[in-house]
């Protein structure tokens, strides 16, 4: 009788250990997925930062062109008076 109970307990222990191992594998896979998403988002942030820098440069160029156009218009007005 005791031997059967010990055997059943050993089987339950083995099954629980297997279940824990499966849970750990699933958790490790989810952690890998999260790490991959973080890496992808980091790359996207880097791309966005570069695009924003380019946009800022274009904006500065546009502002400079606008200022030069105003100066040219003022000069032309002065010549036509």
UniProtKB/TrEMBL annotation:
Residues 1-21, 58-81 are annotated as: Disordered. Residues 10-19, 59-72 have a biased composition (Polar residues). This is Methyl-accepting chemotaxis protein.
């Amino acid at each position: 009788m005791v031997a059967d109970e010990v055997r059943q307990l050993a089987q339950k222990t083995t099954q629980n250990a297997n279940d824990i191992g499966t849970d750990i594998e699933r958790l490790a896979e989810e952690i890998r997925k999260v790490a991959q998403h973080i890496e992808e988002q980091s790359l996207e942030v880097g791309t966005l930062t570069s695009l924003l820098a380019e946009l800022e440069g274009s904006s500065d160029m546009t502002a400079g062109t606008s200022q030069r156009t105003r100066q040219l218009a003022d000069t032309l007005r002065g010549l036509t008076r």
